[in-house]
Amino acid sequence: MNRIVRMLAAGAIAAACLSSCAKEPSVDWDALREDAFEAWMSRNGDGAVKQPSGVYIKKLHSESSVVKPPKAGDWVLIDYTGRTMIAGDVFTTRDSAVARQQGTFEYYTHYAPELVEYELGGAMIDGLYHALGAMTEGDSVVAYIPPALSYGAYGGSFGNGYQGQISSVSANTPVIMNLRLDKIVPDPLAYENTQVREYAYDNWGLSVTDTIAKNMYRRVIVPGRDTTHVRKDSIVCLYYVGQFLDGFVFDTNMADTARKHHIYDSNNSGKYDSITLTVGSRDTAYIAGFYKAVEGLRYGDVAQVVFPSTYGYGSTGTSASDATVIGPYSPLVFTIEVLPRYGDGTALHPYTRKGVQSVDGNEDGVWATGFVVGAVEGTSVETGAKYSDTVTVKTNILLSDIRTPSEASRVFAVELPEGEIRDKLNLVDNPSIYRKKIAVYGNITQYLGQKGVVDVTQYTKR
């Protein structure tokens, strides 16, 4: 995870005023670096005030004349851009405009203030800790940080799209931070629970009485056509879109959505398929929020759910070199589609054999899918079905949800209209499609003694 942290990187300070003494064993390098820092500040400090820690602060904006700094153990929400003092190179930023200017912008990067623990010797560098100690909520400052309070003897490195024109800071390098303290957060879990509650109320009109689990809110935005509800121990298939509260999309298993938000991973095309999970299980393949969110929905429902990090990525968050960083205590919003058990007749979720057979009455203009397993040589599926690629009729085919059916209850017949569709799908002329999966678009009605598909106008191979 990209933070202003102590990270290992090779390098050494390049200040010319110090390099001439490189071989003198008696030189106090720390003192010389401090002198060089003070000399630079005397010429370029632009009114910055030296703090007891040695950090210089220039206030750009303040919303209060009373300084109420964070306390050790608090968390702080901060926005920042860092530059090396001598060269002025940007090495890290939370600002998308700066990242674009530097040529390091990434679509998967969430350019937003970072929540980090306020602790000396912890995640943040000492100079940042001391700078924040002179600030209160709403303050914006320029902080000039000497080498001893910067990235130390090892330097620091940055990535995930948060880096600037350079991705590392050399050892013993003074830095300048444009820093804004957005919020002091004594209890980050309580803070995100409040965020979740306010999000549900402001955007969905939901109150605490509408929670489906502690601090978890859900609303159905597209009702499913199935009347069956997802219960504990149900096996469900899901499509999802994950967002932060500000609407930034960080993950999805829907290819079109990933492309729209420029986060499609062409090296992992298998990712863009539905995920399968057992509701109420202790499986940890997916975040806990998924298992909680779908219980009680109907198959086919599209719902939105918002929840705190207790159901997501917890107090540590996640990090990857080529994916969105999810910070600690990050509340999340997911749009989740529970796939219909037997399809819903759409192109995305065509009816399976069970779906076709469960249609009440007739239904026009639907998709149905299955494996090509034979044809009907006669007037009814029950008596005339032949489960083979060596059939004698071209007017119909049989589809099934398995490749080797042996009874009429496991298949449905598809009438092949004269013309291109019959020419392409009949088994007499196209034995190679035997046991291959296809989808057809037409009308569901009684055909050859049981529910089937007629008036086919389109087909696809799967």
- Biggest sheet character: 7 strands, antiparallel
Strand content: 25-35%
Low-confidence stretches: 1-22
CATH fold name of the largest domain: Chitinase A, domain 3
Straight-line N-to-C gap: 40 Å
Number of domains: 3
Helix count from the secondary structure assignment: 10
> Would you tell me the structural class of the helices and strands?
alpha+beta
For the secondary structure, the number of strands is 22
Coarse morphology: elongated
Q: How big is the Rg? A: 31 Å
* Fraction of helical residues: 10-25%
CATH class of the largest domain: Alpha Beta
Q: Which oligomeric form is depicted? A: single chain
* Mean pLDDT over the full residue set: 92
Task: Kindly describe this structure.
By secondary structure, the protein is α+β, with helices and mostly antiparallel strands. It folds into 3 domains: 16-186, Chitinase A, domain 3, CATH 3.10.50; 189-338, Chitinase A, domain 3 (Roll), CATH 3.10.50.40; 353-461, OB fold (Dihydrolipoamide Acetyltransferase, E2P) (Beta Barrel). Helices cover 17% and strands 29% of the residues. The chain is built from 10 helices and 22 strands. The chain has helices at residues 16-19, 29-44, 96-102, 126-132, 188-204, 255-260, 288-294, 353-358, 381-384, 420-425, and strands at 49-50, 56-61, 75-84, 90-93, 114-117, 140-145, 156-157, 168-169, 175-185, 211-213, 216-222, 235-243, 249-252, 275-278, 302-307, 332-338, 363-376, 385-386, 396-400, 411-415, 437-447, 450-461. The protein is elongated. The protein starts with 15 loop residues before the first helix and ends with a strand.
